[in-house]
Each structure stands twice: as structure tokens, then as C-alpha cells.
Amino acid sequence: MNKAELVAAMAERAELSKKDAEAALKVFTDIVAEELKKGEKIQLVGFGTFEVSERAERTGRNPQSGAEMVIPASKAPKFKAGKALKDMINA
């Protein structure tokens, strides 16, 4: 499912216009991104948790030359599915 299909499904289920559904989806993704950028965690009970994962600095190898290189520390967004979502998928 791509973004357009998701917007269409949201509009149909919530009985909204596609424009309103797209605006709601944009606001949701913007808020999630802003909170993660601040280092906050977003918990949606029954669905899952969005959080930031810290990756430590490490040594790696350049695949072309084989030379060692330092991969700097970074942060990455992470989603952990909730129990209710896992149970729904496995049912």
C-alpha cells in the first residue's frame, strides 16, 4: 500500500474527504517526526511505540577497498509493534 492508497482507505473508513484524510496523515507524520527529533517516545497503546535508537560509533570496512573506516555515532527511528497488533497479525 502506498501513500495515495492509504489516504483513500482512511478517507473511506472515516467518511472524510481525501483532502482531509491526507491533511490528517501529514499532521500525524509531522508530529511523530518532531517528537522523535526531540528524543521523545510516542506510545500508541494496542498499536506500538515510535522511539529513537542510539547507534554507537564503530569501526567498519570500505567494501571496495577493504580499508578500515570509522562509522560515526548516529540516531535512527525505530518502531516496536504492540501486543495487540502482533496478535491481530498472527490470528
Description of the molecule:
This protein is of the alpha+beta class and 91 residues long. 44% of the residues lie in helices and 30% in strands. It is built from three helices and five strands. It has helices spanning 3-14, 18-37, 83-90; strands at residues 42-44, 48-55, 58-61, 68-71, 74-81. Strands 1-2-5 form a three-stranded antiparallel β-sheet. Strands 3-4 form a two-stranded antiparallel ribbon. Strand 1 and strand 2 (48-55) form a beta hairpin. The longest helix has 20 residues, at 18-37. It is elongated. The relative contact order is 0.13. The model has no long low-confidence stretch (mean pLDDT 95).
Query: In this structure, how is the largest beta sheet organized?
Result: 3 strands, antiparallel
**SSE run:** HHEEEEEH
Count of individual helical segments: 3
The span between the termini is: 21 Å
Shape designation: elongated
Task: Tag the structure with descriptive keywords.
91 residues, alpha+beta, three-stranded antiparallel β-sheet, two-stranded antiparallel ribbon, 3 helices, 30% strand
Topology:
Elements: H1 3-14, H2 18-37, E1 42-44, E2 48-55, E3 58-61, E4 68-71, E5 74-81, H3 83-90
Antiparallel strand pairs: 1-2, 2-5, 3-4
